Every structure is written in C-alpha cells, then in structure tokens.
Amino acid sequence: MATEVRVPTLGESVTEATVATWYKKLGDAVAVDEMLCELETDKVTVEVPSPVAGTLTEIVAAEGQTVGVDALLAQIGAASATSAATAKISNDKSAKAEASVKEGKMTDVNVPTLGESVSEATVSTWFKKVGDMVAQDEMLCELETDKVSVEVPSPVAGVLTEIIAAEGETVSANAKLAVISEGATAPAAKVEKVEAAPAKSGKDVEDAPSAKKAMAEAGITRDQVQGSGRDGRVMKEDVAKASSAPAAAPAPVSVPRAPVPADDASREERVKMTKLRQTIARRLKESQNTAAMLTTYNEVDMSGIMELRNEYKDMFEKKHKVKLGFMSFFVKACTHALKEVPEVNAEIDGTDVVYKNYVHMGVAVGTPSGLVVPVVRDADQMGFAAIEKKITELGLRARDGKLSMAEMQGGSFTISNGGVYGSLMSSPILNPPQSGILGMHKIQDRPVVVKGQIVIRPMMYLALSYDHRVVDGKGAVTFLVRVKEALEDPRRLLMDL
C-alpha cells in the first residue's frame, strides 16, 4: 500500500509554495524522516520529510511547480528486500563493516568552540581514516578558520567508524565531524571504508525557481545576491533584499590574466588561498577602503638602547630566564606615547570615538601561513621582563599554529617589525578597527650630525600609519616624536617621562 506525501501547513496566510529541489529520485529507498524535497514560499523554506520508510514510487509535483497546501507531492511504496538493503547502505555514510569491528558506545566528535565572532571553519586535513584505531586525545583532524588552525582531538579511545565532514567542507560551530565507537577494537583484517564525499561546490547549487524569475525581473545578477537557503541557494526573499539594498560602491574589477604560453603554463602551480590568507587580503583591503590612512616618518638613533642592552643583557637573562630584545623597549615607548596621545589608541564606532584606558599591544608575527597579530594584554602595566616573556611565548605559539582566538583579539595598537626581514622603510597598513600601527625597520649605520659633528650611528626609520578620521597630523607627529625621545634616551622610560 502506497503512502501519500503531501504539502505540510505552510504558515498563517501562506497558501502555496514552489517545489525548489528534490533530494530523491524515483526508485530511491528512503528512511523515516529522511528529507525528500524542499519547498519555497514567499517567506520561508520548508523541508518535507518522509513519513515512512520505503521506496519513492511516484513524484507528482516536479521542481519549479507551484503547489497548494495539502497538495499531493509524491507516493512512497513498501520497501522490498532489495530497496531495504539499499536504504541501509545509503544511510550508512561510512559504509562500516559491523562484522569487522567490535562495536562499543558511539561518541560524536563535534567542532570545538572556535572563538568570539567565528561561526565556521573548513576541514583542512584528516589524520585518521574510517576504521583506524584512535587513542584518547589523539589528533583526528585539523580545522582552518579565517584566523587560526584548530586541531580536534579524540574525546575517547576506540575506532573511527564514521567521517561526516570531508576535507574541504565548511562546518559550523559545534557541528558533528565524526563518530567514534568507544572501546571498540579493529580486527587484523582490513576494515572496509568509504571516503567521505567531497564538499559540494557552489556551482552545483540550484537556486530557487522563483528567485531566478525575480532576479530576471529586477535586472540583477546572481553575484549581487547573498543566498540564505541550503548550501547558499538564493531564495526569493534574498532577491528582494538585494533589490532594496542601497547601491554599494563598485567592487574592484579583477583584471584577467594575459594568455600564458603553453610551455610556461606547464611550469606554473595554482594553489587555492588558505582561509587565513583570504582574510588577510580582505581585511587589508577593507582597511584601505575604510580608513583615511596616512603615514608619517621619523628616524631614531638606536645607540642608547644598544649600549644599555649590551650592558645588562647577561644579567637580565640570568635573572629573568629570557633574552632582552629590542621589542620590549618599543612596547614601553609606545605605551608611554599612547598615554600622551590617546586618540592613537582609540577607534571609531559609528559616529562615536572609543578611547581605551588600557593598551592591548598587537605584535605582528610572520608565520608560514601568513601574518598574524597576537596581543600582549595590558602591556602598559607590564615590565620589560614580562613583555619579553609574553612576546617570546606568543611568537612561538604563532609559528606552531597554536594561538587561540582570544590571543589574537582585542588589540588597541599594533607594532610591526619589518626590520627582521631587512626592510629599510615601508608604510604599514592599519589593523582595523585600530587607529594606529608603528612600523619598525632595519638598523643601519648612517652618517648623522651630532653637536655639529658628522658621526656614524646605528639608525632606524620609524613609520606611523594612522587613521586621519580620528588622529590629526599634530597628534601623529607628537606620538612619533615621543617614541623617538624614549628610545634615544631609555632612562625616560624608567622615570616615566
């Protein structure tokens, strides 16, 4: 006996819907509550589950067809022995061989907390395969967000029986990644396993029929609409939002590459940008587009710091178990200057300026994956030794990809040291929403005039990029001069001058 599948109640004042997508084909085996199709109304998207287990024997309403409430969508017949077996296989995503694995308690592996304002991640690498034995806390996979890489350990010891999110797939916070059979043991024989299906490409997503019609009527393209449906599918209401939104500034046109000769093309390698690199590119461009960015320069005689460092570095390291570098001097000099010119430590929030009575100092660090900016919190309350220890710790964690989200958020000012790579002068780009960033550069012996005499001194160019919307030229120059004075006479730092 066939079971009818009808349009469910669509909500108050909604009398019809459009069949957007069928997830099953005629003859497919279906399980109870498995999704059959998706309906689209002018307000919401509605998924239609199967009321029974069986075989889809008839599809009455095709994709794109408009149907009323309680209209017949499809019919499901009783499952045959063959279709029942097919349903079992289709619902077993890992195709695990139960006879080959001694089952235990099933434990889900979920996406860990990704950090404030981070809602999704991409599965970059699986270290284990279906059927592999895993120990508790052994790394299963690595996730990549737009800020950091996150390793996911196994919560229990057992056998990895199912991989739900394949490499390259984007997952939301707390989504299920895999299933582990707790306490199970894998046999000596090879365990049958099936690779997880690759993530769907955005090109395979079919937009709702009514959305296509609305886009044509509104004269807008697919690229101008942000889809809110399943897998980014564009719905009718998305088109309405895009049509009513104020016109945005035209996006920069991507210039296509010139034709490449075949012999050169064979020697090129095309690699997809990582999430981190994409975010770096986007944020830096946003900074240039949003802030009224300007850079002012000065130079500093480093001989005072170098002499002081040479005199005390051995005693400093012996007592504090950390080397005395130049960065702690720059952090201290900046914290003093920020107290005198607080607008450099502020940020714009709408029509307000937020002045911060603390200094969370961002220190830019180059890593194999790209530039990251860990934050030294309350740097204005720390001494030289505490600053050096924290910078060393954060630098090592950054290069190992072990920084947490919290360690890279909330900075109020940033220092970038291009000098470690040999840069003589550059204009650093702001780290939004901050209003200032100091660029350090290479120390180079140069002839300078001191008390009427030409002498050779170790000199460094300093660059302060600032947001001219909140920081005036006088404030920017004053800040840089105060940093220069503190560095050229380090005793001023000790005297709080």
TrEMBL record:
All residue ranges annotated as the Peripheral subunit-binding (PSBD) domain in the record: 206-243
Pathway involvement?
Answer: Amino-acid degradation; L-lysine degradation via saccharopine pathway; glutaryl-CoA from L-lysine: step 6/6
GO molecular function terms here?
A: dihydrolipoyllysine-residue succinyltransferase activity
| GO-annotated biological processes | L-lysine catabolic process to acetyl-CoA via saccharopine; tricarboxylic acid cycle
Where is the Lipoyl-binding domain positioned along the sequence?
A: 2-77, 106-181
The answer to whether keyword Cell inner membrane applies is no
Please give the CDD domains that the UniProt record associates with this protein.
Answer: lipoyl_domain
**Which reaction does this enzyme catalyse, per its entry?**
N(6)-[(R)-dihydrolipoyl]-L-lysyl-[protein] + succinyl-CoA = N(6)-[(R)-S(8)-succinyldihydrolipoyl]-L-lysyl-[protein] + CoA
Named cofactor requirement(s):
(R)-lipoate
Annotated Gene Ontology cellular component terms:
cytosol; oxoglutarate dehydrogenase complex
Which keywords does UniProt give here? Acyltransferase, Lipoyl, Transferase, Tricarboxylic acid cycle
Query: Which residue stretches does the UniProt record annotate as biased composition, category Basic and acidic residues?
Result: 195-210, 230-240
Compositional bias per record (Low complexity), positions renumbered to this chain: 241-263
What is the role of the protein in this entry? E2 component of the 2-oxoglutarate dehydrogenase (OGDH) complex which catalyzes the second step in the conversion of 2-oxoglutarate to succinyl-CoA and CO(2).
Q: Which NCBIfam families match?
A: PRK05704.1, sucB
Q: Which named protein is this? A: Dihydrolipoyllysine-residue succinyltransferase component of 2-oxoglutarate dehydrogenase complex
> What organism does the record attribute this protein to?
Pseudorhodobacter antarcticus
Q: What is the lineage of its organism?
A: Bacteria, Pseudomonadati, Pseudomonadota, Alphaproteobacteria, Rhodobacterales
